[in-house]
Specification:
The complex is a heterodimer of chains A (about 240) and B (about 600). Chain A is of the alpha+beta class and about 240 residues long. Chain A is about 25% helix and about 15% strand. In chain B, helix 1 runs parallel beside helix 3. Classes of the chains: A alpha+beta (about 240), B alpha/beta (about 600).
Chain lengths: ~240, ~600
């Protein structure tokens, strides 16, 4: 069923889509941005963050796993979906300990960039202030769980791309954390700074040491243009 | 018998094989023999199964009954079920803690026992109830504490499980006499497709709560491309207030196995798996004996009923304490030896389920109905019930009523009439469908129990006028906080936020805006969560806000905004320590 051309309608705009593609992939190709956090094009989708939730024919579904069907009507950038996404972003901010002003990832952090894009100034929910572990034992990479949003990118990258399974989840519910494959911490694992798992973290939770300030604050990816504009630029170029 | 964890793991793996999908069995056995799962056992399991230790921890740490750190030599877990609360579990808890000389959540000074909690363990009609190392205690009273704790210290055998079935009213489908093998023989006289068509004609719908048409599910699975097909029976009823499957597998296990075998024939499956919730482990031996008898009678095995072309057998997988595993895709993950996190759909289990093969997951009661439909015919079945809900429903009733227990009734029964049957008086609210269902007020008691009106997987909990409904809502919300799997953000964080906000209301610190926020937050959890359980985890709050608005309004104060904390109370310790008086501003409100 390759190459079969379908059409879907996103927020009133009809776009072509290939059969077998997900809503998110079809939207990306057409230059329409659907917000996402746990999704990464190099990884199989995880379905953790739910930010890419859209309404497909009226029903909420995540765009990263749902495949397109011909004539599918999708609500993406509506006031309701934007509000719901902002709520999830606020939840992620209060669940962890995110202090943007002194975070190595500020300006290149996808969580921070999405919060700006959704007009979040401060979370309206009460903070959890959880006690979270920092592990700087590895010579080249550290993990600061205060900034972890449990998107599972590191888990999938290490398992599926690096073939090492250095990371895993541990616990359940609000107590879920990222664990590493050694009781001695990151230094006891087979993690290498060149691994996919070390560079796909969307926040400042897994950071490669000594590189963090090579690009100064103010000149980083999302300092220059809001998250999603790379995808939306395609549409403007085509149009 | 080997004593060190390493040789224990090796010995178990010799029996189970180096099969990832048996991880839960291996871990459960280590837990039961060592008392916990030490690091060297984790390493040995990982090595045997060809995975990394972090992946073993990933799975094990998900389940309540598996522990990666040492606990007491015995573990007592008191059920936090609301039905138990209503019958004095708090007093039992205090008595147990006093006798043990330790609080709940910790180990006694002599290391003999650990006291803890467990979510509803399906004994709501004979609560308060507790689990002790796989055994069940029911109808507990504070006076029992001394004997229990002494028994545990001396490792005596007082922990004899005594569980009542309490079938208050049987019906024609589930609790009717059964001629062993009759339904299977009737099925084998027809083609698999004819069996599926008969089930479809009966308009049987899934009894677990979602109500998906069973015939259609079987048909999808039979026709899906795949190398193998699997039939899974979901006996992981973890929804608070639900205990009907416990009674069914206790009283009529043959009917269930009959239904599983028929389904296996219809689907073209060789293997059926019964996923038994860890709380019901005490029934394992009984069920294994029934299976063994059926093998001897030729009703299971390589040639079922002598048919060379039909081989089918049933294996039992015991869970390890996780409500979310009742969600069918989470159950499949658990069966594959992973943490019980639901999957994204599509693909649906009928397309890619257990081990990526087409799989049907059906509730215990559904499979029992299927057996009876094949035996007595679709017309007989569909004459009962309502248009969209044919047949009978087994209800498990608990709470404020004279006759708690199990009732098999035709679909369509009016709730008022049900309340009469169970002897409920002075009713204030009825929780239909457990915490994920709806909290109904008196004005709604004319509703009927069926998929098209008041739908339930079986749970009906009754609350009389003396009960504080909002504290029940709180217990339900705590249940979802405890049992959220944590995979997706809206349910993982949202359930905890709902609890915080509800506590603000209960402590009298909320204003009207907080009620609006509560509703908005609940809607986010409902719309954005990944699985059916997450999507319904705000229901206790959302349905009580709708049906009991006054209970909330009575608790709020005037004003546009109020802080989360009570300032005078928050600074009191500091004032006492420093010996200063609160200033005027700090004293107000």
């Amino acid at each position: 069923m390759s190459e079969q051309k379908l059409h879907i309608i996103i927020d009133g705009t009809e776009i072509p889509a290939e059969a077998g593609k997900t809503i998110l992939e079809a939207a990306d190709t057409a230059g329409i941005y659907i917000p996402r956090l746990c999704y990464h094009p190099e990884l199989i989708p995880g379905g953790h963050c739910r930010l890419c939730t859209v309404k497909a024919n009226g029903k909420p579904i995540n765009a990263c796993t749902m495949t397109v069907t011909d004539g599918m009507v999708i609500e993406n950038n509506s006031p309701e979906m934007r509000t719901q996404r902002r709520h999830i972003l606020e939840m992620l901010f209060v669940e962890g300990n995110h202090f943007c002003p002194f975070c190595e990832a500020s300006g290149s952090c996808e969580l921070q960039a999405l919060a700006y894009r959704h007009g979040m100034t401060a979370p309206l929910y009460p903070y959890f202030f959880p006690a979270r572990q920092v592990d700087a034992s590895h010579p080249e990479v550290f993990i600061d769980r205060n900034r972890c949003i449990l998107c599972g990118r590191c888990v999938r990258a290490s398992r599926d791309k690096d073939g090492k399974s250095v990371f895993g989840f541990v616990g359940r519910g609000i107590g879920t954390r990222i664990a590493v494959d050694s009781e001695a911490g990151l230094s006891g694992t087979r993690l290498d700074a060149a691994d996919s798992a070390a560079r796909l973290c969307p926040t400042g939770s897994i950071v490669i040491k000594r590189l963090a300030y090579r690009i100064p604050y103010g000149k980083r990816l999302f300092d220059l243009s809001p998250i999603g504009t790379d995808i939306e630029k395609k549409r403007k170029d085509d149009g | 018998m080997p004593a060190d964890p390493l040789s224990i793991v090796r010995e178990i793996v010799r029996r189970t094989g180096k099969d990832r999908s048996r991880l839960l069995d291996i871990a459960r056995e280590v837990q039961s023999r060592v008392g916990w799962i030490p690091g060297e056992a984790v390493g040995a399991i990982a090595e045997a199964l060809g995975i990394r230790p972090v992946q073993v921890r990933d799975a094990i740490s998900f389940y309540s009954f598996l522990s990666l750190s040492p606990g007491g030599r015995s573990n007592l877990r008191l059920s936090t079920c609301v039905a138990g609360r209503m019958r004095g579990s708090k007093q039992v808890e205090e008595a147990l803690a006093r006798e043990a000389g330790t609080g709940f959540g910790s180990v006694s000074p002599d290391g003999a026992l650990a006291l803890g909690y467990t979510s509803c363990n399906g004994m709501c009609d004979q609560s308060p109830s507790a689990l002790i190392d796989g055994n069940v205690l029911t109808n507990l009273a504070p006076g029992d504490a001394k004997g229990i704790i002494q028994g545990l210290r001396q490792k005596s055998t007082f922990t004899k499980t005594r569980v009542e079935s309490n079938i208050r009213q049987g019906g024609p489908v589930i609790f009717a006499p059964l001629e062993r093998g009759a339904a299977i023989r009737s099925a084998l006289n027809r083609s698999p497709q004819d069996v599926i068509d008969e089930i479809a004609r009966s308009r049987l719908r899934g009894r677990g709560g979602a109500g998906f048409p069973t015939g259609m599910k079987w048909d999808f699975c039979r026709k899906a491309p795949g190398d193998e097909r699997y039939l899974i029976c979901n006996c992981d009823e973890g929804e608070m207030g639900t205990f009907k499957d416990r009674v069914i597998i206790t009283e009529v296990p043959d009917l269930l196995f009959e239904g599983m075998t028929i389904s296996g024939y219809a689907l073209g499956a060789k293997v059926g798996i019964l996923y038994l919730r860890g709380e019901y482990q005490y029934l394992l031996q009984h069920l294994e004996e029934v299976l063994e008898r059926r093998r001897r009678l030729g009703l299971l095995g390589m040639t079922v009923c002598g048919r060379e072309d039909f081989a089918f057998d049933i294996r039992i997988q015991v869970g390890a304490g996780a409500y979310v595993c009742g969600e069918e895709s989470a159950l499949l993950e658990s069966l594959e030896g992973k943490r019980g996190a639901p999957r994204d759909r599509p693909p649906y289990p009928v397309q890619r389920g257990y081990l990526n093969q087409p799989t049907v997951v059906n509730n215990v009661e559904t499979l029992c109905c299927a057996a009876r439909i094949v035996e007595k015919g679709a017309e007989w079945f569909s004459r009962m019930g309502t248009r969209d809900s044919t047949g009978t429903k087994v209800l498990s009733v608990s709470g404020d009523c004279e006759r708690p227990g199990v009732y098999e009734l035709e679909f369509g029964i009016v709730i008022d009439r049900l309340l009469e049957l169970v002897g409920a008086k002075d009713v204030q609210a009825v929780q239909v469908g457990g915490p994920s269902g709806q909290c109904l007020a008196v004005k709604d008691l004319g509703k009927r129990i069926c998929f098209e009106d008041a739908s339930t997987g079986g749970a009906v909990m009754v609350f009389n006028a003396s009960r504080d409904i909002l504290s029940v809502v709180r217990d339900f919300t705590v249940f979802f906080v405890e049992d959220s799997c944590g995979w997706c953000a809206p349910c993982r964080v949202g359930t905890s936020l709902l609890l915080k906000k509800l506590d603000k209301v209960l402590s009298g610190l909320a204003v009207h805006q907080d009620l609006l926020d509560l509703e908005s937050l609940g809607n986010t959890v409902k719309i954005m969560s990944r699985c059916g359980l997450g999507q319904t985890s705000a229901n206790p709050i959302l349905t009580s806000l709708k049906n009991f608005p006054r209970l909330y309004e009575e608790r709020i104060r005037q004003g546009d905004f109020s802080p989360e904390i009570d300032l005078p109370r928050a600074i009191q310790p500091a004032c006492e320590l420093t010996g200063r008086e609160p200033s005027g501003e700090e004293r107000s409100e």
